[in-house]
Each structure stands twice: as C-alpha cells, then as structure tokens.
Amino acid sequence: MGPCQGRVCGLAVSAIIGEKRGQTPDEVGYYRIRPPLKPLPLSEIASFTVSGGQERAAK
After folding, report:
1. Which of 8, 13, 15, 54 would be a feasible disulfide site paired with 31, CB 3.0-4.6 Å?
2. Radius of gyration from C-alpha coordinates of the chain
3. Structural domain contains residue 30
4. Mean per-residue pLDDT, 9-38
C-alpha cells in the first residue's frame, strides 16, 4: 500500500474486486485499511535485547 494506506483508492479497489467477482461494491465490502508501517534500520533491530535482559552479541 502507498502512504494513504488505501484511503484514496479503497472504493476503487472494492469496485474492481466486485466487478471480477460479479458482485456489487456493497457486497464486497470496503477495502480493509492497514495501519501504516515504517522501515526499521538494521542498527535498531540489532539493539533489541533477548528476553532475560541480555543484549544479543552481533556475529
């Protein structure tokens, strides 16, 4: 999904899915919006701790 997370194209996607399935957009339902995600730098992932509070050693 793009930055709008389906808010702009959601109705159009429902209409396209409905057309392919032979249903109305109301029967298909609204395109499900997902929460926005952002990429994490590897340095942030590497700084996570293992349960028990010990830092994980980089290999």
Report:
1. 13
2. 20
3. yes
4. 83
Phi, psi of 56 (to 5 degrees): -85, 130
Exposed/middle/buried for 14, CB within 10 Å: 0-12, 13-18, 19+?
buried
Write down the pTM of the prediction: 0.47
User: How much is the mean pLDDT over the chain?
Assistant: 77
Counting the structural domains of the chain, the total is: 1
Quick one: residue 25, left, alpha or beta (phi over 0 = left, psi -120 to 50 = alpha)?
alpha
Tell me if 48 is assigned to some domain.
yes
Statement: residue 36 has pLDDT above 90? no
Residue range(s) defining the domain that contains residue 28: 10-55
At 30, is the pLDDT very low, low, confident or very high (cuts 50, 70, 90)? confident
Q: Which two tokens stand for residue 58?
A: 């980089």
